[in-house]
Amino acid sequence: MLDNTELPLVLIGGTLCSARLWQPLIDRLALSSVICISLTGTDSAPQAAKRVLQNLPPRFLLAGFSLGAIVALQMAADAPERLCGLALLSVNPLADAPENASSRREAVRAAREQGLTEWLSANLWPKYVAPERLADASLKAMISQMAHESGPDTFASQTEIAISRRDNRAALAALACPVIIINGAHDPICTPHHHQLASASAAHARQITLSSAGHFVVLEAPDDVAPPLRQWIQESLNATQ
Asked: What are the residue ranges of helices labelled H in 30-136?
């Protein structure tokens, strides 16, 4: 057990994700203090960052996945002094293109009409995992269960967070704490190019691309994600001593 009681690891999940996303990693990391956050109840990235920051201790380690990584970057912009380490998993650091807004909102409407899990299965599942995992029924069931538990209202508010996100690469570049960036090579949502842009903004960051994983790298490859993440946690703890 790694004692991080004074600097808890804050885990922010992505669109239609719950704490289930993180459980395989939590089991492997063996930490004394972990806080899991799902993005609900706000409809912009700045609002989400503000709400999360209001409910956290003064200083912490921060890891975000996908939409959670976008909010984590906003937190780094708003309160860099509170972060003792930043991990970005499956991240797109750019602002959303304005022309994406209508199609994103149409997706929310279609998901309400068709049923969230049915819509996800047809539209998102093929983009979520590496090609060799597309037939993985248990992985698909896990992601579908998280979506069902999240519900269409949460999907709608999370979509607004994605639409309103900012380009926070300048804040990433200014961070002094340890930074790690992890992605799957088969990710058409947050592409390898997006991760190259993120790592280029943080010269001191460690970037890891997992050749066997897609967008849901956290669930696809926890055995490969946990060791470098644990090393990042140890480095972050050491840097504060």
From this structure: 45-54, 67-78, 100-114, 116-123, 125-128
